[in-house]
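Lab meeting, item 3. Inverse folding demo.
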């Protein structure tokens, strides 16, 4: 089975995955969310709706776990960092606080967003 189809199992009845160009544009627009004193919650909600197509999110212990789909690994490193930063910024905007977030791809840790150490990719 195609690896792209495997990652999309369970998405029946949801939106089709938007084009990566549209998502990249939304991620670029939303990236300054956390740096703003007053963030744009409406823009953050729009980004969250797009990210639903790119990741599954759940609480695991004392941190948030974001499990990226295949779209993450197809991006260059700079875009993967931008996606990670945008998710963390959006989460901080909507919750009002920066939280510990671990990012995974195929059960492997690929990034961390921490209120104390910042955002980084794990190579």
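The presenter then showed the designed sequence:
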């Amino acid at each position: 089975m195609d690896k792209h189809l495997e990652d999309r199992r369970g998405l029946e009845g949801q939106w089709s995955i938007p084009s990566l160009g549209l998502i990249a544009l939304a991620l670029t627009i939303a990236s300054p969310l956390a740096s703003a004193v007053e963030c744009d919650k409406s823009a953050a909600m729009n980004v969250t709706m797009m990210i639903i197509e790119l990741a599954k999110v759940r609480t695991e212990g004392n941190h948030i776990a974001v499990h990226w789909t295949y779209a993450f690994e197809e991006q260059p490193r700079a875009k993967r960092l931008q996606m990670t930063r945008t998710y963390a910024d959006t989460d901080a905007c909507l919750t009002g606080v920066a939280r510990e977030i671990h990012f995974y791809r195929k059960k492997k840790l690929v990034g961390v967003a921490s209120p104390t150490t910042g955002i980084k990719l794990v190579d």
